[in-house]
Amino acid sequence: MNLEQALTSINKISQARRGKELTPGERIAVLAAWEKIGYEEAIKLYRENFSPNYISCRAGPGVWKLLSKEFGCRVTKTHLKTVLENMLQDTSLTEQIQANSANPDSVPILFGVPPDTGNFVGYRSQVQHCIRLLRDHRNIFIDGPQGIGKTALAARIVERVMSKTNESIEICIWKSIRYGPLLDELLADLADMLGIPFGTGSSVNKLQNLLIRFFRKHRCLLVLDGAEILQQDQQQSAWDYYSEPYTDYGPFFRRLVNDQGNSSLIVTSRTRFLDWSDLHESGNAAEIIRLEGLAQDDAETIFEEQSLKDRHCWPALINKYHGNPLMLKVIAKRVRTIYGGSTADFLRVQSTIIADPLLLTLNHEFSPSSSMSEFECFAMKILADLMKEHDSVSYEEILQNIESHSLFRSTDGLLRTVSSLVNRSLIEETKVERKSKFRLSSVIRKYIEQDPQGFVGQKVQSVA
Ligand SMILES: Nc1ncnc2c1ncn2[C@@H]1O[C@H](COP(=O)(O)OP(=O)(O)OP(=O)(O)O)[C@@H](O)[C@H]1O
Ligand SMILES: [Mg+2]
């Protein structure tokens, strides 16, 4: 917004409230406030004949009073520019929103492109639950292993919210942060998308304030997809939950959860963010949804779509890959193209397969430069060995096994290791008769056994 636009907007307000435009003296007051100069200087600059005293005691206060009433907050010479910039943000967007809310059949405005949900199946209770949570203005953290459908679920929710006019969301913003933007880059990007004016070089704090103010004024749904990047390679011993360049995301999320009025945030991540667990447990409007795979019937739809044969073999496959839609899609394609659609042939010939995107991720997770400690890798190797005879094992069984290798590990230390691996979706936790049991997905187990890059061997050797 520039001075001319500011004057036009104030003139409109003045016309609407008082039936007349700004007087020349009032214009000088606004000019001085906008340019942040004294009244005397402004009078000289604009070659007027007013006394500074008149502008300061009569003309100026008239405008500040008018604008304070209009915006419902205190406006003075010092605050005028900031208030105007915040309140009269991108008028085209504001007008669009107003036009939208006047039309009962309107849909919210969408920024960003969520993936297509044409083939989405299942996760019905999660979709319903999330829609209810959004209705209650809550914020949602969706976590789960790679390919389990976090992005797809978030896209489904956006689709539902966009098509249901009674959800009263005005704006949806879909933003993938998989590329790892620094917080100020993300905030500037969001402000830009929403047409919120901000000066170049604005501080993170100022950008946050502008955005929060916007979220309070308009009911928005902000989706940040692929947030695991913010905690990737974070050492377990580090004091902050977030990796080094991203540490200011923590306070930002906390502020959004506590401060953004009717708007809501959805974050998806492969890693559980422990600060969200803290927020949830301390009664803030932060909910956590863990995705653990499609139910049998829903997963079968993926095989049906590829016209696979031998339906009786499907449950074994779905079970083996824990209903992971990414894995099931890769397998369905392989069965169709290589085995002529025969699931029985595939099962007979193929052992566990690791889809390429998962192989890349696992290579990264186990690489010497990753944050996975040698002991974490060792614990996973122990679990992989135990799983040759058991479906899942208890914490005590892992501990006993580690002790049998004459490796001292405090109970607390091992518990921390195990829960860190669970949080990072590297091992799975299930409840058997209310007791925690742990297991590895067949894909990770296969990776550990095959050790294609030799990374597992290296790490394990340095512990044993
Ligand atoms: N409920 C579903 N119905 C049908 N297909 C699905 C479903 N969920 C996910 N998929 C498909 O599985 C694949 C992986 O899904 P998605 O990208 O949502 O996983 P993700 O959990 O976000 O993975 P990542 O951790 O890599 O971000 C995609 O091709 C997606 O279309
Ligand atoms: Mg995703």
UniProtKB/TrEMBL annotation:
<dbReference type="InterPro" id="IPR007111">
    <property type="entry name" value="NACHT_NTPase"/>
</dbReference>
<dbReference type="Pfam" id="PF26355">
    <property type="entry name" value="HTH_VMAP-M9"/>
</dbReference>
<dbReference type="InterPro" id="IPR027417">
    <property type="entry name" value="P-loop_NTPase"/>
</dbReference>
<protein>
    <submittedName>
        <fullName>Uncharacterized protein</fullName>
    </submittedName>
</protein>
<feature type="domain" description="NACHT">
    <location>
        <begin position="139"/>
        <end position="305"/>
    </location>
</feature>
<dbReference type="Pfam" id="PF05729">
    <property type="entry name" value="NACHT"/>
</dbReference>
<dbReference type="InterPro" id="IPR058651">
    <property type="entry name" value="HTH_VMAP-M9"/>
</dbReference>
<feature type="domain" description="vWA-MoxR associated protein N-terminal HTH">
    <location>
        <begin position="1"/>
        <end position="86"/>
    </location>
</feature>
